[in-house]
Amino acid sequence: MKIRNLVLICLLISLFVSCRKNKNDKDLFSDDISLAKVLVDGKLRVGVASNYPPLCFSDGRGGLQGFDLDILTAVADFMDIDIEFVGMDWTEKFNFLTADKIDCIASGFSATPEREKIVEFSMPYFKNAQVIVVRAGENIKTLEDLKNKTVGVQKGALGMDILNAYLKDTVKTIKTYSTIMPAFSDLKDRGVDACITDFCSVAYLINQEGNRYEILENCLASDSYVFAFKKGAVSLKDEINEVLLELEEKGVLEKISRKWFGSNVIIIGK
User: Fold this and answer.
1) pLDDT tens digit sequence for 176-190
2) Domain Ionotropic glutamate receptor C-terminal, which positions (predicted)?
3) pTM for this structure?
4) Domain check: are 20 and 108 in the same one?
């Protein structure tokens, strides 16, 4: 392990012990040992939705691959620790975090004011948008055209929140999925008339399958992807942010971005 990590471990554990002796002085000490724990364990545990290309999906050999995975693997390499990707139902992401089954949530976690009340956010690394995707050539061009239509959406995703808030009384049926890829399959097979999801996943899908799908012109909302940490895990969040900035300066993140998107979509440091 790097000398830098050993120094951080000793410092943070020392602060934790001091904190226990000075409970009334919250300005000087903190109970936060999130970074120290990861460094002592020598591993960062990351919760992911395992079927969400291009951020995280099967590599066909029993493992996982993707844009987010490459970024966090680079982070772990820089910190000289191991990384473990934990597949989970996206609706269980907060439960996994609070139960200490994972240290971080990745694979397309959108930052919202409501979510920021219950978790810590890393700096945004990807600008995204919530969009409506339909089959190419269909007579669905506007939000009004969704009246009496069946719309697919992933459970626990930002798209579902938007659908419930603004379109619930417009559409005929809301069909939910544990991951977004089965929704796209249903769209192709006419099981649903439209899907609401991240632009990121739709852009990847269109790139893979040609002009089978179309995205409606007006996005429903813009958002940014972040990595999420347990509320109060400020030391771990700050360290990850510092490493992300280092990797951006070294050109590592741009290389990862070009691998998956063909261009630099990273917004860190911009």
Assistant:
1) 999 999 999 999 999
2) 43-263
3) 0.80
4) yes
